[in-house]
């Protein structure tokens, strides 16, 4: 009996199975108590205090908690909410939602808030930055182990496993009845390089009946790999029955309301009083210059108040130029539109505190170049000699390079629009000839592909400055002139189609494309024409 008890006591623990890294026998355990410790890497976040509000970003601290806090149009919120209701009801064609719009327009904040109201577990995909490893590998860096391999899962496999886990299992932190809602905003790089992999995965996921709804958030970008048409072409959206909801930049009125709410909460907090508070006109300028990006506006406001809230207006206003901001909406509809004159000379102060660079729409940028407004009050700053008095101009109100920097177009595309619309803004043939001379110089700078990347900005500067210098301001006050789309695009498209047709017809020909277009095809057309006449 005693022997059986001793055997049972000795076999109460299973033999260890984690001795693969070292074949040497383990040292005998000492009977004195061993102090347990936690790995600093894995559990370093436990026991840490939450960062204080003063050191945290206001974007995170004052994130919207109710619908009234959202600075998004109510119609967009209702569209997202209706999709959530239909997707939770397992309606067909309501498994994928595609949210598009510029940065900082409240796409992710809207989804998070509505998921919280619907008691859904918000599961967000985050790209893994590093591969997990065991610290014991560092000790065996120079040791050789037979048939030892290092295995790591690809991004595609990790993303598919993430979707499957989110579909099958629910969060252990919440209640068991909370369903999951998957959100993907940070796309894996493999999908950006080859979107067909993502499309095949979504088709496979769409067939499964247990899949949870997925929200894709795509921010507007000029980069082709991150664009909406590259990731989700129209045919893929139609095949997968994706619901596309496009968000617009946040209106300045909603931005001012959100900024005022944050300031009121911050000023009422103990130990963080700001006296005096920024005026509403200052917040209006901040909202206008942020370009509808609430994240940029809140960050700029926080950084500005760190400096001195009493001088906050000085970061955005100046004394050289008066800018009129029109309030299109008033509290009383019977109240007439009111113009608020706000001094604003330059927005360098806004960029200095982390603000967003103000962007210009295409037609506004074209108008600033072609209408070429000048400061007629100050006159010529530095008179030129007699033989150069023809080139004397009053100072410009706009910096040519600043206009180009604020556009989201390349130098070639912007120059094409200027070439198409510039002739209507010159009063005589001499001014038009001078402008075309500068356009020719710009084309020469960007002609060679080897230096195009370096000289592209210089070519744009020559184009803009040349057109503005050639415009002497005689026709600038002649009223409004419509802008048209360049004919270059249709001509270029037709040229490509003709070239492809020639290549298909003369596949076995040894002639070059230049010889085909300049010799063979014209000669053949002339022969066929003469035969038809005969």
UniProtKB/TrEMBL annotation:
Protein name in the entry: Cell cycle checkpoint protein RAD17
Organism domain of life: Eukaryota
Gene Ontology, cellular component aspect: nucleus
Keywords, comma-separated and alphabetical: ATP-binding, Cell cycle, DNA damage, Nucleotide-binding, Nucleus
GO molecular function list: ATP binding; chromatin binding; DNA clamp loader activity
Similarity section: Belongs to the rad17/RAD24 family.
Keyword ATP-binding: yes
């Amino acid at each position: 009996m005693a022997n059986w008890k001793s055997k049972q006591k000795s076999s109460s623990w299973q033999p260890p199975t984690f001795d693969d890294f070292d074949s040497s026998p383990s040292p005998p355990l000492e009977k004195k108590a061993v102090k347990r410790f936690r790995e600093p890497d894995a559990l370093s976040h436990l026991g840490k205090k939450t960062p204080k509000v003063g050191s945290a970003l206001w974007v995170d601290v004052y994130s919207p908690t109710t619908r009234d806090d959202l600075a998004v149009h109510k119609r967009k919120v209702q569209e997202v909410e209706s999709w959530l209701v239909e997707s939770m009801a397992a309606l067909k064609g309501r498994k994928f939602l595609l949210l598009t719009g510029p940065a900082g327009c409240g796409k992710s904040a809207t989804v998070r808030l509505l998921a919280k109201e619907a008691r859904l577990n918000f599961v967000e995909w985050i790209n893994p930055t590093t591969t997990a490893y065991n610290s014991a590998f560092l000790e065996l860096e120079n040791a050789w182990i037979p048939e030892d391999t290092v295995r790591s899962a690809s991004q595609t496999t990790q993303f598919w496993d993430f979707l499957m886990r989110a579909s099958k299992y629910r969060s252990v932190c919440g209640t068991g009845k909370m369903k999951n809602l998957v959100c993907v905003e940070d796309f894996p790089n493999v999908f950006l390089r080859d979107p067909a992999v993502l499309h095949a995965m979504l088709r496979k996921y769409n067939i499964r009946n247990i899949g949870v709804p997925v929200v894709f958030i795509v921010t507007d970008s000029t980069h082709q790999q991150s664009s909406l048409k590259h990731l989700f072409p129209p045919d893929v959206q139609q095949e997968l029955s994706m619901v596309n909801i496009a968000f617009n930049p946040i209106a300045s009125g909603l931005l001012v309301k959100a900024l005022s709410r944050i300031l009121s909460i911050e000023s009422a907090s103990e130990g963080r009083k700001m006296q005096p508070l920024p005026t509403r006109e200052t917040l209006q300028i901040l909202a206008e210059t942020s370009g509808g990006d609430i994240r940029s506006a809140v960050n700029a406001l926080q950084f500005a108040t760190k400096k001195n809230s009493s001088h906050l207006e000085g970061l955005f206003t100046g004394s050289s130029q008066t800018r009129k901001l029109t309030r299109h909406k008033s509290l009383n509809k019977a109240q007439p539109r009111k113009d608020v004159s706000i001094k604003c000379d330059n927005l360098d102060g806004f960029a200095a505190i982390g603000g967003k660079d103000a962007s210009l729409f295409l037609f506004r940028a074209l108008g600033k170049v072609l209408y070429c407004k000048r400061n007629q009050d100050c006159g010529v700053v530095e008179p030129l000699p007699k033989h150069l008095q023809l080139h004397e101009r009053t100072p410009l109100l706009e910096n040519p390079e600043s206009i180009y920097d604020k556009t989201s177009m390349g130098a070639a595309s912007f120059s094409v629009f200027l070439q198409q619309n510039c002739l209507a803004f010159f009063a005589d043939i001499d001014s038009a000839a001078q402008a075309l001379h500068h356009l020719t110089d710009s084309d020469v700078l960007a002609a060679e592909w080897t230096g195009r990347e370096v000289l592209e900005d210089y070519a744009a500067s020559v184009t803009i400055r040349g057109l503005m210098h050639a415009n002497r301001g005689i026709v600038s006050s002649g009223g409004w002139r419509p802008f048209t789309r360049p004919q270059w695009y249709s001509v270029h498209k037709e040229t490509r189609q003709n070239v492809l047709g020639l290549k298909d017809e003369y596949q076995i020909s040894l002639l070059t494309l230049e010889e085909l277009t300049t010799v063979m095809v014209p000669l053949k057309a002339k022969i066929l024409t003469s035969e038809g006449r005969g």
